[in-house]
Design a protein that fits this description.
By secondary structure, this protein is an alpha/beta fold. It has eleven helices and eight strands. Helices cover about 45% and strands about 15% of the residues. It has an eight-stranded parallel β-sheet. The radius of gyration is 18 Å and the shape is globular. It binds pyridoxal-5'-phosphate (PLP). The site of pyridoxal-5'-phosphate (PLP) has 13 residues, from strand 8 and helix 10.
């Protein structure tokens, strides 16, 4: 009895948070995709939000993601948004039917994802974003802007099992706090524009914006926002999880 009551209240808390974010995103841009970032949160949280109609979820850690894939409906569109290791590419591409990898940062990893997908039972291509370091901070992951055209070209020409979705960035914390235009997001827009011109393509997406800065990101053209704590609440840090 008590357990049911607790579970009910968690589900209603998630419903309230989710619908507020969903409304905020779609009122700014009806076509921007909302990815609910569920790292460190239980599969039951994801199921509750899935039951409200949400299909796109984001995860940062391969093992945690694989456990959730096994526990949740096949229809989930999983976005891998964590730091991508070469030796984990095959596991992702082989094991997940509906997969988006937002953190591709080089040709080798693109090739590993492509080759593993070719050997898998899954027909659907892996959607990929190339991650760009727009803030220039040394500790930020992602490719240097000048290295992006080559990997994009490689994905388009050499990776039939990958579907290039667009470019992704995280941006600096400092830029996410200001109320003016976010320079890191503006940089990603600029890189996208010159890339489309150089390669004579259109329609590249921009994955930018998290809980603290998604409204500004959408105003600057984001088509894919990744929102965690505003929906699921605060979470432990990586260090806190490790020390348990
Ligand atoms: C954790 C994470 C998010 C979500 O962050 P919140 O601030 O909780 O919305 C988005 N993108 C990436 C790459 C993340 O690692």
């Amino acid at each position: 009895m008590l357990r049911t009551a607790v579970r009910m209240s968690r589900a209603s808390e998630l419903a309230t948070n989710y619908s507020a974010v969903k409304t905020a995103v779609s009122s700014l841009s009806p076509t921007t995709r909302l990815v609910c970032v569920s790292k460190y949160k239980p599969a039951s949280d994801i199921q509750a939000v899935y039951d409200l109609g949400q299909r796109h979820f984001g995860e940062n850690y391969v093992q945690e993601l694989m456990e959730k894939v096994a526990a949740l409906p096949q229809e989930v569109q999983w976005h891998f948004i964590g730091s991508l290791q070469s030796n984990k590419c095959a596991q992702l591409a082989k094991g997940i039917p509906n997969l988006w990898v937002e953190t591709v940062d080089g040709e080798k990893k693109a090739k590993k994802l492509n080759d593993a997908r070719a050997q898998s039972e899954h027909e659907a291509p892996v959607h990929v974003f190339v991650q760009v370091n727009t803030s220039g901070e040394a500790q930020k992951s992602g490719m240097e802007p000048e290295d992006v055209p080559k990997v994009v070209d490689y994905i388009l020409k050499e990776c039939p099992k990958l579907k290039l979705a667009g470019l992704m960035t995280i941006g600096s914390i400092e830029q996410s706090k200001g109320s003016e235009e976010n320079k890191d997001f503006a940089t990603l827009v600029q890189i996208r524009d010159s890339l489309e011109q150089a390669l004579d393509i259109t329609g590249l997406e921009l994955s930018m914006g998290m809980s603290s800065d998604y409204e500004e990101a959408i105003k600057q053209g984001s088509t894919n926002v990744r929102i965690g704590s505003t929906i699921f609440g605060g979470r432990k840090t990586k260090e806190e999880v490790k020390s348990q």
